[in-house]
Amino acid sequence: MPKRRFNVLQKKKVNCRRFVQSVAGLCQKSMEVPRAGFEPATTGLIVEKKRLKRDLEDFKLFCLAKLNLSMETAKHYVRRVRVFLENRNKITERDIQTYIYEAKQKYVPDYVSNIISAFKAYFRDYKGLKWMDGYKHPSGPLKIKEEIEREKVKRFIEAIDDIGVKCFALFLATSGLRKSEVWNLRKNDIDRELRAIIPNCHSGKTKRSGISFYNEEAEKALLEFEKSMNPWQSKSEKLLPISKMRLYYAWKRAKEKSGIHLKPKDLRDFFSQEMGKALIPDRFIDIFQGRAPKNVLAKHYTPQGIRMLKEIYDKANLKILKQ
Predict the structure, then answer these.
(1) First-to-last CA distance in the chain?
(2) Where do the H-state alpha helices sit in the chain?
(3) Which of 43, 166, 231, 236 has the fewest beta carbons closer than 10 A?
(4) How, if at all, do strands 190-191 and 90-91 pair?
(5) Does 182 lie in the same domain as 54?
(6) What is the pLDDT of residue 140?
(7) Does 119 reside within a domain?
(8) Do residues 292 and 210 touch, judged by C-beta distance below 8 A?
């Protein structure tokens, strides 16, 4: 082979080798290197402060329309995400990991789990990012609840000086419903003859309503409250049309007067406790409190099923004001 042609081929090989090396170098520089203890680094998400309010409004709509969450849950998720975003200009995956890690050091597992759920809905489902993949919800230690004495519940409810709020408390304690369920009860959710309650206030997937009942003491308080209603309250579709402020201040006065600190959830727990002491099977307590699967509830929505549940409820003979 002529010497000149050989030199040309050698130059081409060198140039080709240099080209490949330069391309490889560029690729290596553009690739993000994984950091110890974290997922591979990713590009950040810019937080536009001017558009944050609109973005969170769109996120709430997304939760309601696509994720089928309740309004209360959607608002809760928006609050969790806003607290995280409002003082930041840029978000990376590491920021989320650090925030959740620090939350685990300060808050109870249920609170941290709620943050993770909100972030999954926002970053994964709404933004389409994979940053929340693989997160596990923390579980706390088993908590042994102390018995809620019936005498304390009696003294607390008797200390309530507002008949509407007293009625509200009796419904909580004798039906086992959640605070929001009693709050949103409509008149057509109640069968006054059977004292049956079939709330229809959960449109989301996180909670479901059950089939429950209330006792004669709650019915008596309801009749008294209805007599005291003003024209506006009488026209309302709600069973207990009282404002949240009215409930708050009457509840606060009862705490101060009785010296007993009970929360609305304590009355729901009291109902479950008393049903268990009356040897009512757990599967029926789950139906009363809205924890049973839909297929189980469907079997009891018939008139015969509701009457059968009423017989089981009456066996507990749940009384609060009369000992």
Answers:
(1) 115
(2) 3-30, 49-65, 71-85, 93-106, 109-119, 150-158, 163-175, 179-183, 216-228, 231-235, 244-258, 264-277, 282-288, 294-299, 303-315
(3) 231
(4) unpaired
(5) no
(6) 72
(7) yes
(8) yes
Asked which of 92, 126, 160 is the last residue of a domain, the reply is 126
Tally the C-alpha atoms within 13 A of residue 93's C-alpha that lie toward its C-beta: 18
pLDDT digits (tens, 9 = 90+) for 42-97: 568 898 888 999 999 999 999 999 999 988 899 999 999 999 999 899 999 999 99
Please report, for the domain that includes residue 49, its CATH number: 1.10.150
Separation between Cα atoms, residue 222 and residue 285, nearest integer Å: 24
Question: Within 10 Å of residue 142's Cβ, how many Cβ atoms?
Answer: 5
Per-residue pLDDT tens for 124-147?
Answer: 999 999 999 999 999 877 676 789
The tokens describing 249, both together, are 């201040």
Q: 302 and 163, same structural domain?
A: yes
Q: Which residue has the tokens 């620090």?
A: 102
Q: Rounded to two decimals, what is the model's pTM?
A: 0.69
Q: Which domain holds residue 290?
A: 150-315
Q: Residue 253: phi, psi to the nearest 5?
A: -65, -40
